[in-house]
Amino acid sequence: MLKLLAPPVILASIAAFFVWHASHGDRGLIAREHRLAEIAAAKSDRDRATAEREAAERRVNAMRGDRLDRDQLEERARAMLNLTTREEIVIPYPPGQRLF
Description:
mainly alpha; single chain
């Protein structure tokens, strides 16, 4: 009787081992889902950084000598130096809502 049960039990144990590691191992299905989530997070970080870099490049290109946008230059200088003229109206923003 033991000779009849031994091969199926051994094969079932081996199959269970491989099935377990296929789903829960280092390269299993669950680990794959975690890697895909990490990849998606990294792609969103990359896209955010790319958009930020492109916005900075647009601002820098607008301030180049050959195509200097004087209005934008004056606006940025006033915002950074916190200056106004007598004719301007100042609208204060709450601390968490900066314009620039």
